[in-house]
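Structure ticket #2291
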Amino acid sequence: IAWLCIQFRSLNRGAELSDLRIGNTVFGPNDCCVVFQFVFGKSMRDGSSHEFAVKALPGDPTCPVAAFRAYVSVSRATLGWDWDALGAYVFPKMNVQNGERLDKPLTPGAYAQRFQAYLGKAGLLEEETLHGLRAGGALDEALRGTSLELIMQKGFWKSPLTARKYVGLLVAMVGKEFRDEVARRHAGFVQDAEEVLGERPSLLRLA
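Resolution: structure written out below.
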């Protein structure tokens, strides 16, 4: 659940989350946020590092801070994981026999299988992918009125065209009332998105 909430709210790719280490992770004052640092990703293959944060959303079931705090607490109490082991992976593989944390990260592919299994058990599985959390997070930000520039910063998109392919899903998926509100908040964006999309895509199938 912590992975799902963090990816949804941070707009990050699974590869960035897979590579996170405990030593590059810190809770903000009074659990107002969690700050992470990663040094490898699709847009950061030169060895540079980058920080991103997810803020607390009290009362929201997708609050990434609450989910991550619960993950840390439960894994420490029930599995004996040491969260002072700075070099350990935040989301590691583990020995299913005894719950021991292994010195290998949980891969995006492996977590995607779990994600689809969770949806299947809930009777919600269609053609969703883990990467769709990134698209869904961008949609949610746009509905909240976040500017395209800030959405690009959160998702590490360098091109407005790429970001529009994600946020532009609003045009195809919501009613006229929401569409007009998005047009008001993001002047000129809706028309551009329609030109980019051309057809109605599925929310969680976007790659």
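Closing remark: The two ends are 21 Å apart (CA to CA).
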